[in-house]
Design goal:
With about 750 residues, this protein is mainly beta. About 5% of the residues lie in helices and about 55% in strands. The chain has two helices and 43 strands. The strands form seven sheets. It has a 22-stranded antiparallel barrel. The protein has a five-stranded mixed β-sheet with strand order 3-9-10-7-8. A five-stranded mixed β-sheet has the order 17-16-20-21-25, with no helix packed on it. Strand 11 and strand 12 (about 185-195) form a beta hairpin. The longest helix has about 30 residues, at about 5-35. The chain is globular.
């Protein structure tokens, strides 16, 4: 049930929305009269068509090749989910709930995700570098390109890359207001206005405002998200246009949830040498370990301009520029999850409370020139890309001291209840607000990274289009300027990386294609990119990947599917090792990881009313070299689920008295997943394993989560000014109790009501 506080929030937001809709209706009517002679845009090869979707998926992709291409024609795997999917399943945040894509898990606001057995910390927004920080109100679709093929955008995780595609103005006037409320005192409100300006309707604009607030199962944990987005597109001619975009996002999290503690068996001995980690204290997953004086705030301001021009049937151009400022500020977050031994909870935290910040400024320029031409019976497509990206990061951290912190202790012990459901007595928390005057710098780095890249990619269609083959390579010149101002270290260095890719797709019958590809990628070794550590032996991580499979498009393109297998090797990982001659500790770049897997992705629009989708993957990810930590060979990295996937169904009534009613249900599944690194708990002396708590064995159980939604668009007359839609969502409908791979508690069954007005 909704609390009275939530209902008051709904009323306070909904009344201004009604007033705003009245004012917007006036401008809407005026804009409609001014746009009777709208120009028609010839769709650029750099723009995805808005039609051709199958259920919640899409038939085209931008991310796979930097130009608009049908997914079935790509000789590698690309997955797409649309904003309609996010809305129907009440995905107010694009986080780890977005798990309906095979081999893809753990998306978070910091920019991290797991894809094909590898952890990544960067994403793309409209093709530009982004460290997370996004809302859902202005995202039109999420595209996932899998494997090192993503290196067409430069540095990338071996598993691939995620690209968040922004919404763009359309050629019609529209208004949309939406309010959702439900469990956890959730309130979400969005307002979206698409308009047309000018006597010929050549200027189009889209404005979106979003607000999202919710609590959680952990006391004091509260999230508030504020979003704003403006896009203006001017059409100079049917073959050229300019798109301007501005994005604003502030995300504030107070007293965020913590990971559930590990359970320790000390064998009833005084020594810790025989201690073993034997489980996870699930009942303590909702324990507030930080207190009210704790926050983690993120924000983003981004500006993008994109000019597209089709010169003739041969040449097309896209030129884009992007600027952004991002920040991350946190206080009193240096708290570890702790451990439970018997009935004693041991909570660990830093020597002092800390304030940490990351301030980022950056941007880039991308120029893509595409040539379509023929030589005899062979059709060619050649893409040449020039790209420059600049990234500046300032990340101070302060330790807070003072007499009022005399009670602060790095290690605290508490007695917990016998069933591990909570502490036996209230836990005291820090009550001191952040005061920069009492802070002492612990970290003071100013770093800058510049990357200049060039991509040449050629595709040829042979045998009347039955055989598509592509090949290309990207050259990146990476330059670092590193400054550790506390230690007085400054360092500058640069390196070059060449990443080739090639592949082919063969249509051996109508609707059936076989494909294969090979690609390479690189990613800077983050542990070595510091002013005090970097040296002449530096080497980037690299990856080589093979993929092959079958794609199908049957039943008049209503049924599409991809079945594929892949193999990816990650090399040059920075590890600690033992010099075989001197027997002294050394740092090498000989660490390695091997991932093999299979995937199945399918969508089927069975009728105009019923569509289903399935996406499942198996990932066998294992460490093959970790330096002297030889016991870790063959183990899985942390938080990589060996099996995952999702299935969804949507049914809508298209005629009759119940026309406008739709129902959707989805299931996501994760297999038992390790929660710690492959060497967690192992202790080595002179390169020899001497003991282990076996923390690396700990896993969270597998689980299946069922989500469902119901939408009803109320009947309206032809002259009605507004359309009205009511909705109900039930997330985790079976009330499954589960822990995420982060050891944080997943949401229990929750209900959300939705109301939308459209014009």
């Amino acid at each position: 049930m909704l609390s009275s506080l939530t209902w008051r929030r709904v009323a306070s937001l909904f009344l201004p929305i009604l007033l705003g809709s009245l004012l917007a209706s006036i401008s809407f009517a005026q804009a409609a009269s001014d746009a009777t002679d709208q120009s028609v845009i010839e769709l650029s090869p750099f723009e995805v068509s808005s039609v051709g979707s199958d259920g919640y998926g899409a038939s085209e992709s931008m991310t796979g090749s930097r130009v608009a291409v049908k997914i079935i024609d790509l000789p590698y795997s690309v997955n797409v989910l649309t904003s309609e999917f996010f809305e129907d399943f009440a995905l107010f945040e694009l986080n780890d709930n977005l798990a309906y894509i095979s081999s893809f898990t753990d998306l978070d606001q910091g920019g991290s995700f797991n894809l094909r057995g590898f952890r990544s910390t960067v994403q793309l927004r409209d093709g530009f570098f982004r460290l997370g920080r996004y809302g859902s109100s202005n995202v039109d679709r999420v595209e996932v390109i899998k494997g090192p093929n993503a290196a067409i955008y430069g540095q990338t995780s071996p598993g691939g890359m995620v690209n968040m595609i922004s919404k763009k103005p359309t050629n019609r006037n529209s208004l949309r207001f939406s309010v959702s409320a439900g469990d956890f005192d959730t309130l979400r409100a969005t307002a979206e206005y698409n308009g047309i300006a000018g006597p010929e309707g050549k200027t189009r604009y889209l404005a979106i405002l979003g607000y999202y607030n919710r609590m959680s199962e952990t006391p004091l944990d509260e999230l508030t998200n504020k979003e704003g987005y403006l896009a203006i597109q001017h059409v100079f001619s049917p073959t050229s246009s300019l798109l301007l975009q501005a994005e604003f996002m502030d995300r504030n999290v107070d007293s965020s949830s913590s990971a559930a503690p590990f359970i320790i068996d000390d064998k009833n001995t005084a020594t810790a040498n025989d201690d073993k980690v034997v489980g996870i204290a699930k009942g303590l997953a909702t324990l507030q370990q930080r207190g009210s004086e704790s926050y983690l705030n993120r924000g983003m301001r981004a500006y993008t301009a994109t000019y597209t021009k089709t010169f003739n049937r041969t040449f097309s151009l896209r030129a884009s520029g992007n600027l952004y400022h991002a920040f991350n500020e946190n206080y009193n977050n240096n708290v570890a999850a702790g451990t439970v031994n018997g009935r004693t909870l041991v909570m660990q935290r830093g020597a002092f409370p800390e304030f940490g910040a990351i301030y980022e400024d950056g941007g880039g320029v991308q120029v893509d020139l595409l040539a379509n031409y023929r030589t005899g019976k062979i059709e060619h497509r050649t893409l040449v890309t020039l790209e420059y990206n600049d990234y500046y990061r300032y990340d101070p951290a302060l330790r807070i001291s003072g007499a009022d912190l005399a009670a602060w202790t790095p290690i605290r012990t508490f007695t917990v209840l016998p069933d591990f459901s909570g502490p036996a007595a209230p836990i005291p928390f820090l009550t001191t607000e952040y005061n920069p005057a009492t802070g002492n710098l612990r970290r003071d780095n100013k770093n800058r990274t510049s990357i200049t890249g060039t991509l040449i990619r050629h595709q040829a269609a042979f045998m009347d289009g039955r055989l598509l083959a592509f090949g290309g390579a990207r050259l990146d010149y990476v330059k670092y300027r590193l400054n550790d101002r506390l230690a007085g270290n400054a360092n500058r260095f640069s390196f070059k990386e060449v990443t080739p890719n090639l592949g082919a797709s063969y249509k051996f019958s109508e609707g059936w294609r076989a494909f294969a590809n090979y690609s390479e990628g690189f990613f800077p070794n983050a542990q070595s990119i510091t002013a005090s550590v970097i040296d002449a032996n530096y080497d980037s991580e690299r990856a080589q990947g093979f993929e092959y499979g079958i794609k199908g498009s049957l039943l008049d393109d209503r049924l599409t599917f991809t079945v594929n297998a892949f193999r990816i090797e990650r090399q040059n990982v920075r590890v600690n090792d033992i010099d075989p001659v001197t027997q002294l500790p050394v740092v090498t770049f000989e660490g390695a990881q091997l991932v093999r897997g299979v995937e199945l992705d399918a969508t089927w629009s069975m009728t105009d009313a019923l569509s289903i989708g399935l996406s499942v993957g198996h990932v066998n990810s294992e460490i093959t070299d970790l330096g002297f930590r030889t016991a870790s060979i063959g183990r899985s990295p942390a938080r990589i689920s060996p099996y995952n996937g999702g299935a969804h169904l949507r049914y809508r009534i298209v005629d009759g008295r119940l026309r406008g009613l739709s129902f959707n249900v989805g299931v996501t599944y994760f297999a038992r997943t390790p929660v710690s690194n492959a060497d967690a708990g192992d202790t080595y002396t002179n390169g020899v394993l001497v003991r282990s708590t076996e923390e690396w064995r700990q896993t969270v159980p597998g689980m299946a989560i069922v989500n469902a939604g119901l939408r009803y668009r109320l009947p309206t007359s032809r002259d009605a000014r507004w359309g009205h839609t009511l909705g109900l969502n039930v997330n985790n409908a079976l009330d499954t109790y589960y822990l995420k791979s982060s050891r944080q508690l997943g949401d229990p069954r929750s209900f959300f009501l939705n109301y939308t007005m459209t014009r």
